[in-house]
Amino acid sequence: MELNGAQIEALADLLVDSHDELLSSLVKMRKKHGLSQEQVAERMGISQPAVASFERYDANPTLATIRRYALAVQASIEHRVVDQCCILVAREATGGASRSMSWNPRQSVEWEWAAGETHVKAFVNA
In the 8-state DSSP scheme, what is residue 56? Predict the structure, then answer.
């Protein structure tokens, strides 16, 4: 199933938001544990300015750096890959007509359709 431009844009926004949320959560964890940027830098084996750069709103650290920062602030990270293609567009076939369902990437989606005698039901957690 191919996504249209609006759906691709919505997915891109979701990915950016989740990246920002990940970095923000790690910085909050550092502060919650009462750790300074200097302490985190020492644990990571880098300089304090490098930690400050990591914590900037426009930072784009590598996954390895994110893991090292998480370890330094005593956090774990869970990875999850979700196939958004299946929930971006769900079509219901009824007598030759098809209808697209709405999509909200932050909600669970449930959809069902029937094609002749075949019934397909899917539950997807976004």
Answer: S
pLDDT tens, position by position, 12-32: 898 899 999 999 999 999 999
Mean pLDDT, rounded, for 72-85: 86
Domain 5-72's class? Answer: mainly alpha
Written as six digits, the tokens of 123 are: 């539950």
Question: Residue ranges per domain, the chain?
Answer: 5-72, 85-124
Which pTM value belongs to this model?
0.65
Beta strands at 97-100 and 118-124: parallel, antiparallel or unpaired: unpaired
Q: Which helix (DSSP H) or strand (DSSP E) does residue 110 occupy?
A: strand 109-115
**Whether the Cβ atoms of residue 105 and residue 10 lie closer than 8 Å to each other:** yes
pLDDT (tens digit per residue) in 46-65: 999 999 999 998 899 999 99
Question: What is the spatial distance between Cα 7 and Cα 62, in angstroms, rounded to a whole number?
Answer: 26
Where helices occur in 1-126 by DSSP H, the ranges are 5-32, 37-44, 48-55, 63-72, 85-88
**Long-range interactions of 27-33: CB distance < 8 A, separation 24+:** 27/55, 29/70, 29/73, 29/74, 29/75, 30/72, 30/73, 33/73, 33/74
